[in-house]
Every structure is written in structure tokens, then in C-alpha cells.
Amino acid sequence: MKLGVVDWSILGLYFLFVLGIGFALRRSMKTTSDFFLSGRSMPAWVAGLAFISANLGAQEVMGMAASGAKYGIMTSHFYWIGAIPAMVFLAVFMMPFYYGSRARSVPEYLKLRFDEKTRGLNAITFALMTVLSSGISMYAMGLLLNLLLGWSFDVSIWLCALIVLLYITMGGLTSAIYNEVLQFFMIVFGFLPLVLLGLHDVGGWQGLQAGLEHVATARGFAAGAWSQSWAHLGNPAENPMGVEWFGMAMGLGFVLSFGYWCTDFLTIQRAMASESMSAARRAPLIAAFPKMLFPFLVILPGMLAIVLNQRGAAGGFALPLKADGSLNYDMTVPLMLAHYFPQGMLGVGITALIASFMAGMAGNVTAFNTVFTYDIYQAYLRKGASDAHYLRVGRLATIGGIGAAVAAAYLATRFNNIMDMLQLVFAFVNAPLFATFLLGMFWKRTTGHAAFVGLLAGTAAAAVHHGLTLPLGSIPGIKGGWLAVIHAYPSEMAQNFWTAIWAWSTCFVVTLLISLVTRARPEAELRGLVYALTERLSDGAEAWWRRPAVLGVVVLALTVGLNLAFR
Amino acid sequence: MNLDIRTPLGLLFMLVGLLLAGFGLLSDPALYERSLGLNINLWWGLAMTAFGALMLWLARR
User: Fold this and answer.
1) Which domains occur in chain A, in start order?
2) What is the pTM of this model?
């Protein structure tokens, strides 16, 4: 891929604005609340765009296109059932507790609701996880820029780390949020023309559908397997993902999706930075509108790519092959950019990709420095210091976090297996989380001991389930079956969904049972933290189109409509 | 917060849009074979400029 002067200028302009925003904000970062929570001053639409943008890292963008090629329109389940319902639930039912309790982070909410050890467990695993995923995303970016632009791995990593470091230490969370808004529009403007050109090229939606039928039948599936999202979910053997509707709806739609969107501080921090309770509740709902349309922006390029690839030489486009002769989908996005974009637009597309790498990194770093400062340093290392002291610690934690992420990126170049294993362990830790929050927020009897033991039991259940099952055709080891193989799943995805279901159910049952035999906290201490003991918010004074419940219903109705249209 | 995000957002998109559209006007038409014969730089550059202008207009006090 060859970039010209115009492409470099676009990339340069972007970097200039990113640093400029940090520079302009440096004077307004006076307290830890400014630095970690933007002084709770963000309008709902800014918080909302940052909310989805923080999740829209480059790995997500590239991964979704790769899945679009590999699985077709079924990939959109990751959005339509794997995100939207959970975002609505967060906004309508959970945000009142996160925002209303004045907790400064998700782990701190656990401290207020349960106890110190539950917070500690969540804070430490979350901090390690954010640093690790930041490192892995840096590693992916280093490889990509090396491959596409010929930049050296070291230069890519250090340059991006330095830019992120500068704008976060200067402008804190506000810097990160503003840059996430820039990145959101870069992705939209960088990818929309790709989709439009691609659709025009294959002959519109009808042409795409016809092309996908060839793709599906050539692989031995029914004609609609790539262009219908629900019709082939009755039997895992009939769809390319190898999953069935129950595992999809419960594993992805309930456990994984609610576990991520309703408990992950990385995204919730953006909503917590909103200017008012009403804005904090609207932020995830405003985010849901673009989120439900993202499949057309990030999955469609993959579906177009597989159609072009199927045409063979006549299409003038080919996905590369892996060593074993199977298609390599990882590079779908860069290949499509190079296929349709001339110099100029190519610069916009590449800038959008680099922007989302950096925003992904910055998102992790801002969540890390907050949790480190409030929930680890202030909680365990040094209590009762001045706010200025904690602000300094926050800036140092930013540097430390980025340093650790760079180290993780280099570790990944040598020990890829260790990275895979760590990610697996974190997946086990995350899987049960939503059961704890659900019981904690909606059942006042839930106790701290129960929450803590329930989380550990859920994580153990995830590990044991993974150790006892294996996707078809895999060898025991990192893919599962390291204890014994008592069940084989049709695909890795089906195994993941069921690992999550087991972890969640175990955590739910254990937390419930232990709560019944341990002593609950007095009700007076739980006001504002539990549903039954919190005054209902009244939305009566708001205009109807600003009420969370109304917006939530609209969002859900539109999502059902999309599912029906592409069933 | 004293910086309205729409200001830098609008400025960035106007600058990138104008750069893209300008490049589209001056560049060799052969460049646009891959974009199906459409001068995507010119048209998308204008779209980005319009978006940038809209953001700046919304940010005015």
C-alpha cells in the first residue's frame, strides 16, 4: 500500500488535532474529579458517542469485518442481541445506581454495596486486564502498520504510546472522550464510502445477496446462510458459526453482553462523566442508535470482500491464504481499503484505523489510571492524602500504565501463548460478574461474603467447564479439554457461549444461597445502592423524547425491526 | 469545560475535507479507476467539508 503526500497530510492533521485538544485542556485539569471523571460535565451526546467509540477499537473494526466474511450477516448478532438490550438495561435500570451513588468507579460501587474484598478482587483484575488489552492492541497495531506502511514495529509502538501519553496526562478523561468523538466520525467517514462503493460494485443489495448465495452453497450450506441472521440457527451444523439459537440468545445475548456492557468500567466511565443523572442515563441510549447501524459499516465490508473473493480472478480481489490453505480473513479491511480507495481517501481510511487503535489504547489507560488511583492506591496504599496528591498519582499511573502496556506488547511478540492464556483467564473472571451486579442491585438481601464467594465460584466454574469441553477438531490445551473431554461443541464460539452460561449460573446460585445464610447489611446503609431502597426517579419533568424509558422502548423496537428485516 | 468539542471536530473535518476535495480537483482522473470511475476524493471531500461546517455552525455562541 503506497501512501502519497496527501495521505500523510491527513494523518498529520489528525495527530495535530489530537495533541492540540490535550494541550487546550491541560489548564482545566485542576482536581481528580476533572482528571478522572471530566468533572461530570459532559453533555449526553458527547458521553454517548464516547461510550460506543471506546468499544470500537481497531481490533473490533477489523475483527467484525473478518467475521462478516467468515460468517456473513450472523455477525450482526454481536450488535443486535449482543449489545443493544444490555445498553438499554444499563441506561434505564442500572445507571441510577452507578451515577446516583456518587461512586467514582465500578469497583467503588462494589465497595459501597458489598465490602472491601469484593472491590479489591474486581479492581485488581480490572487493572491488570486493561493494561494487558492495551498492550495486545498495541501489538496488533505494530504488526499492521509494519505490514501496510512498512513502519518499524518499534517506531509504531513508541510513537503511538507517546502521543497517547501526552494527551492523557495533559487532558485526562476529557481528552480521551473528545478524541473518541473525533475517532467516531473518522470511522464513519472513512468506512461509509467503502461500503457504498462496494455495494455499487456488486450490484446493490440484490447483487450482494446473490453473491452470498454462491459463497454459502460453495461451502455446503443452504443458500441463505450468509445473508439471513436467524433462519439457520436451529441446528449448529446449518450455520457457519456452528451455534444454536439458545446458546446464542443466552450466552451472547444475556450473559456475555450484559456482563460486558453493564459492568465494564471502560465504557461506563464515559456515562459516569455526564453532566447530570438524566444525561448519564441518556448516554447509552444515544449510543444505541449508531450502534445498531454499525453492522452496515463494519460487517458489510467483510461480506462484500467474500463475494468479490468468490468471483475469483474476475473480481480482481483475493483474500490471502493461510499456511494450511484456508482463507486468512484478518486483513479483510486493509485489503478492501486498498482495493477501492485512491490516494486521498486511502489517507482517511488509514487515519480512521490508526485513530481507533489509539482511542482504544487511551480508553484502557483512562480506565486503568482511575481504578488504580481510587481503588488501589487510595484504598490500600495511601488513604487520606490531599486531592492534589492523588491527581499527581493519577498522572504517574498514566505513565506507568502505558509503560506496562508497551511491555505487554513486546511480551506478545515473543510469548503469544502467554497472552492467549491470560486473555482466557480474564474471560473466566469476567463471565460471572453480571450475576453479582444483578443480585446486588435488585435484591437487598445479597451480602458481601456471598458476592465474593459467588464471583470466585463462577470463575472456577468457567475454568472447569473450559477444561472439560472441546470444540470439534481441536486438540486439548488452550482451546479446552485440559482436564478431560466429556463434551465436544460444534465450534469454539458455542463453547465460549456455554462457558459463560455455566459461570453466570454458578455465580448466581452460589451468591443466592450464601446470602441466605450470612447476615445482610442494615437497610439504612444501602439507600441509593439497591433498587428497593432507592427513591424512584421521576422523568415527568423531562420532554418525552428525553425520557430514558421512552428512548429505551424506541431503541428496542428498532432493533427488533432490524432483526426481522434480516431474519 | 471551556472547550466545545464541536469546534476542533468541525475544524479538523473542514481542513481534511478541503484538502481531499482540492486533491480530487487536481489529481489525474486515472487514479479513480479503482473507485469505479467516481472522483471519490472530490465528492467525499465536499461531504466532509459540509459536515465540518455544520459542526462549527452548531458550536457558535
Assistant:
1) 5-414+539-565 (1.20.1730.10), 428-535 (no CATH)
2) 0.92
